[in-house]
Write a structure and sequence with these properties.
Length: 442
Amino acid sequence: MRQQNILKNAFAAAVAVADPQVIVPQYLAEIFPAGQEPRGRCLVVGAGKASASMASALEIYAQAHWPQVNLEGVVLTRYGHASSTKHIQIIEAGHPVPDQAGMDGAKAIYALAKQLELGDVLIALVSGGGSSLLTLPQEGISIEDMRQTTEALLRSGAPIEEMNIVRKHLSAILGGNLARVAIERGARVEALLISDVTGDSPADIASGPCAADYSTYQDAFAIFEKYHLGKDDIPVSVLNHLQQGLAGEKPETLKEADLVNAQVANHVIATAYKSLEAAADYVRSQGYEPIVLGDTITGEAQAVGISQAQLAREHLSKLTDKPIAIISGGECTVTIPAGVKGRGGRCSEYLLSLFAASKDLPNLAALAADTDGIDGSEKNAGAWFTGNVRAGSMAKGIAPEPFLAIHDCYGFFAELDALVETGPTLTNVNDFRIILLNTSYV
């Protein structure tokens, strides 16, 4: 039971340090110090799994510190991730596959930005999940075309970084295009970003609606070629748009040169690494020596689970009296073969692979969960196991291998009552993984 509590409390510590209700006010006070509150019109827009909570925090702060400022705006979030606001409209929409609600919300955000004038302020609240939510296709591309493209990329196993390069070059908002609208009107842009991506680059967080983009139409086209996605998989409108971009007939995404003399700032207010450090501080208080592998671990979830089982085995061979906690972040991928539906997500799949690959380590305990509270196709954040869960699987005759073969990691851990269920956390700093190692069972 102690191991179970430590696993869950470490995850809770990782999530808490990225709570928008805490961090948004801190950064607003730095961006707009006393006497330098927003002047003119103040519009608030945003998108992502944490954006509604960020909007709620901003409203509370503004009411206390900017009573003379009239806030208005539109923020998009995933279904089930809304927060209470009075002046900023919250729209819930589909994720990761875009839907009409997302397109309508993105249209409303774009229209609002078009109303900016010289001296106005645009505050953008951006977090992971914003790429698919801000689905406002370029002219000639429909929402169904975007949906089909997203589904094809998901099936191919393309990592999120590559998916977002494609999205940027099909969107009227992503890839710095939102900031471009404000720049053209002489407005100031302050973007607050909660990062769920490796490296925490503003260009990568929700595909950088307010940031200069490093990718090109050529990069987007190369991704389709890499995964052998052609006209049978990708709509003709999408392929034509990219070809026109390659030919210079469509403008590129926002570049650094476009920001010269512009009033645009991107502030990364929460990161995956900060959350890993918070978890490390917690386990240290419980007598564990943390080993933080970083937030850049990617690859197929099953392969990462196997490699981390081997890493745990190597550390255990050197272990003396003090237990250790191996902590990591980074977004894995799960490639689903044709004809297989699967249940769960990358965190649960990683954990089931680790479970299967560590049968010789009865004292190993672990948890993997998405900090947004939703791991893949079901409603759990992830899963966990200890020696007791392993004993339970043996007693029930439930082996992990058949579940791995059909990508039903959710089904396996549900059978053993070992799911992590938090509901939407209203933040998002990518995946969290922790392995506890002891020389004896605790």
